[in-house]
């Protein structure tokens, strides 16, 4: 039999297959040209409820359209995905939302396109001090602060009434732990082995007047100060809570969500958490919302009682432009628009992630959602906020901190800070695995 | 009794031609070599290149985010790893998980294989039902088991509250022992079907005649199992244990989903992941991967030796 006559011969199939492939190729080429009205800028965002999407729409122009792509929920995973792609010089990322602790690492690695001086001056002018500090690496603003988050102490009004605490004065950790233990309440914090636990420890150490690390410009030779008196004071708080009746059962695995759930339960008394808590219970537990009070972040060591000595955790998002983008100039222009105070307000209204500038707080609709004294508390807290140590090695320091301080019930104020400082030094020098 | 166990694969083995090959055979051989060459070259490229690259990288102090500080350290990374307590702790965890899960799976898997082999009614349905867990993606099953043991929305605490030591407040992922227990349960649930499938293949190769003969000789059920069935399944058991042991030694998904390595539950693979992916320590991480690779080779070699099975024979090549 001749091959061509065999109905199962592969040749019979070749022509339609080739034609199909050609069609597919032509279609995809056409699709690529489809947006020929302008450039598409891809903005990698951390997940939120549509705030950054709305801002992307506001900032799209005739020259370019900003499209968002969502990064993983976990800040550490966001860092991993962005850094690995940037290390491979991926041009698919134009703009990205970067968590403050990783800003220095990205800038130091040369992943970020520099902003013009005029833009840096404008950002310095408009942003809160904490936001500027977290966005600065080697005296240059390397990311544009979009929103600034800060933790405050949330409490159940009914509980503090029962316990008889005066919340108009600054309170210490010791006070709230004792009050909760004595009255069957829980103090909800973030103490899972993750970034949030480092956030808490950093705030406790800063609140005692210390620092995790200094001389960070020396890279892996930075001075590690965890073993200072401030470190011991911080460890005392962690150990006291973990061993008290005020510790939630899931303390060692609790992240923001679990802590929020504990606070919303019958045992809820105190909670340290970000700004989103104000709207967190609106839909699901309106009775909790009615009972929700707020005060400055608790003090690690008691001050003189007039103003708080606490240094609440700082969080937020800075917008960076990839050096490997094919449209750096457009992306920088878009970034300037994204971080305009009005757009910070738009984002805050939709997500509860508060603006990084005082001007952003003036955005009218925010005043309808949030009581003025809460907005004031947040701004005051942002002024006192302690950003995590700005160093390209933050993830090493944070990881080593988590390894030595977790679980919270094993923290010993006499040994943990010393052990942890030595471990961080060894990890930075690559003498120990993490 | 041992006389009943006939030499394996006697009917499949063909005498090998020892005589010098003819021209035709040589030509066929050459053609065969040319035909497989592209595949062999491709395989070498995709497997050997990353291996050699890892070997090369393991000699450097090299961090993805500070590429300019790359520095040759020779075997320094290996020294760091091998003298690190974390490495040995994670290796211990990995071996513990491997030994416990493979042992439990072997027993349960064998029972399942017997059920699948002997069942007379609804054979297809029962075989399928037993195999379902293996069809589920590990990450999905890990999440399912994480929810199962979760303090907030799991059902284990309420369902087993009558057992001493379990209360509504038991935090399974809050301690080492309980976390490892949850991880192993998930691993066993997920992969026992695979074990039973391999054992079923071995079981169906055991000649019914031999079992009949043993019965006639008056062997009890236990004697038949120990002296007839198991010895004749040795190759199948070896393959099952080998595959599962190597798989279990590389455990990652369950730990990643359930504890993220907290409470000291990290495994060797997890440690490697942390170094390479999370810490961007390409040098240290590559040294760990090389060590992991060597350990896997060692385990494979050990298991093959332990079962004294000729691999060619196990494949039925005689």
Question: In words, what does this structure look like?
Answer:
The complex is a heterodimer of chains A (434) and B (318). With 434 residues, chain A is an alpha/beta fold. Chain A has helices spanning 10-34, 51-59, 75-87, 103-108, 117-126, 129-135, 157-163, 173-182, 195-207, 229-242, 256-264, 277-280, 286-290, 328-338, 341-351, 358-361, 364-369, 372-384, 394-405, 416-428; strands spanning 39-45, 64-70, 95-98, 136-137, 140-141, 144-150, 152-156, 186-188, 213-214, 223-224, 268-273, 292-295, 314-321. Chain A folds into 2 domains: 39-142 and 315-384, D-Maltodextrin-Binding Protein, domain 2 (3-Layer(aba) Sandwich); 150-312 and 390-428, D-Maltodextrin-Binding Protein, domain 2, CATH 3.40.190.10. Helix content of chain A is 47%, strand content 14%. Chain A has a 5-stranded mixed sheet with strand order 2-1-3-13-6, with helices on both faces. In chain A, strands 8-11-7-12 form a 4-stranded mixed sheet. Chain A is globular and about 65 Å long. Chain B is mostly helical. Chain B has a single domain (83-314), classed as Orthogonal Bundle (MetI-like fold), CATH 1.10.3720.10. Chain B has a two-stranded antiparallel ribbon. Chains A and B meet through helix 3, helix 4 and helix 19 of A and helix 2, helix 12 and helix 13 of B. Chain B: It holds the Pfam family BPD_transp_1.
């Amino acid at each position: 039999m001749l091959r061509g006559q065999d109905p199962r011969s592969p040749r019979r199939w070749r022509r339609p297959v080739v034609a199909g492939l050609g069609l597919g190729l032509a279609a995809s080429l056409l699709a690529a040209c489809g947006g020929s009205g302008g450039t598409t800028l891809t903005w990698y965002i951390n997940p939120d409820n549509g705030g950054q999407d709305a801002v992307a729409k506001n900032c799209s122009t005739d020259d370019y359209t900003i499209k968002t792509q969502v990064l993983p929920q976990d800040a550490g995973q966001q860092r991993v995905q962005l850094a690995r792609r940037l290390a491979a010089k991926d041009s698919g990322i134009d703009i990205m939302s970067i968590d403050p602790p990783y800003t220095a690492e990205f800038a130091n690695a040369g992943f970020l396109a520099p902003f013009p001086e005029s833009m840096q001056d404008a950002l310095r002018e408009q942003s809160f001090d904490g936001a500027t500090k977290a966005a600065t690496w080697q005296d240059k603003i390397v990311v544009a602060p979009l929103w600034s988050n800060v933790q405050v102490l949330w409490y159940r009004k009914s509980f503090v009434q029962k316990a008889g605490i005066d919340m108009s004065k600054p309170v210490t950790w010791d006070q709230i732990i004792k009050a909760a233990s004595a009255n069957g309440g829980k103090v909800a914090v973030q103490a899972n082995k993750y970034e949030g636990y480092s956030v808490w420890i950093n705030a406790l150490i800063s609140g005692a007047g210390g620092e995790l690390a200094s001389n960070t410009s020396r890279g892996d030779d930075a001075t590690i100060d965890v073993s200072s008196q401030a470190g011991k004071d911080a460890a005392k708080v962690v150990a006291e809570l973990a061993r008290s009746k005020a510790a939630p059962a899931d303390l060692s695995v609790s992240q923001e969500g679990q802590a929020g759930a504990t606070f919303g339960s019958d045992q809820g008394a105190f909670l340290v958490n970000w700004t989103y808590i104000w709207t967190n219970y609106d839909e699901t537990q309106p009775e909790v919302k009615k009972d929700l009070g707020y005060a400055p972040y608790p003090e690690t060591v008691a001050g003189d009682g007039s103003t708080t000595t606490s240094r609440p955790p700082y969080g937020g998002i800075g917008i960076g432009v990839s050096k490997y983008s094919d449209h750096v100039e457009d992306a920088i222009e878009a970034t300037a628009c994204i971080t305009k105070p009005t757009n910070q307000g738009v984002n805050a209204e939709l997500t509860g992630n508060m603006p990084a500038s005082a001007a952003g707080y003036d955005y009218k609709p925010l005043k309808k959602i949030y009581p003025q004294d809460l907005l004031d508390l947040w701004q005051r807290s942002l002024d006192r906020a302690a950003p995590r140590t700005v160093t390209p090695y933050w993830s090493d320091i944070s990881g080593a901190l988590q390894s030595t301080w977790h679980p919270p019930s094993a923290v010993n104020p006499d040994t943990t800070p010393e052990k942890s400082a030595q471990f961080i030094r060894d990890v930075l020098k690559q003498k120990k695995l993490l | 009794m041992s006389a009943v166990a006939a030499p394996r694969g006697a009917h499949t083995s063909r005498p090998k031609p020892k005589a010098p090959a003819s021209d035709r055979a040589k030509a066929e051989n050459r053609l065969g070599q040319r035909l497989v060459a592209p595949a062999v070259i491709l395989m070498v490229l995709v497997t050997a290149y990353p291996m050699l690259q890892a070997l090369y990288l393991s000699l450097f102090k090299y961090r993805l985010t500070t590429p300019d500080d790359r520095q040759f350290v020779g075997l320094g990374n290996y020294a760091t790893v091998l003298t690190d307590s974390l490495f040995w702790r994670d290796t211990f965890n990995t071996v513990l998980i491997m030994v416990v899960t493979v042992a439990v799976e072997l027993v349960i898997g064998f029972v399942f294989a017997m059920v699948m082999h002997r069942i007379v009614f609804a054979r297809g349905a029962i075989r399928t039902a037993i195999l379902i867990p293996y069809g589920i993606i590990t990450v999905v099953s890990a999440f399912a088991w994480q929810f199962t043991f979760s303090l907030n929305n799991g059902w284990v605490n309420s369902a087993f509250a009558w057992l001493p030591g379990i209360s509504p407040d038991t935090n399974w992922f809050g301690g080492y022992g309980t976390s490892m227990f949850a991880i192993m349960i998930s691993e066993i649930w997920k992969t026992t079907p695979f074990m039973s499938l391999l054992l079923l293949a071995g079981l169906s190769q055991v000649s019914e005649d031999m079992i009949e003969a043993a019965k006639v000789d008056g062997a009890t059920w236990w004697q038949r199992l120990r002296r007839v069935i198991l010895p004749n399944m040795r190759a199948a058991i070896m393959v099952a244990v080998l595959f599962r042991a190597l798989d279990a030694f590389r455990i990652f998904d369950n730990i990643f989903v359930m504890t993220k390595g907290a409470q000291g539950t990290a495994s060797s693979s997890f440690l490697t992941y942390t170094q390479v992916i999370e810490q961007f320590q390409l040098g240290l991480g590559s040294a760990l991967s090389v060590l992991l690779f060597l350990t896997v080779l060692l385990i494979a070699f050990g298991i093959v030796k332990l079962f004294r099975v000729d691999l060619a024979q196990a494949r039925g090549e005689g």
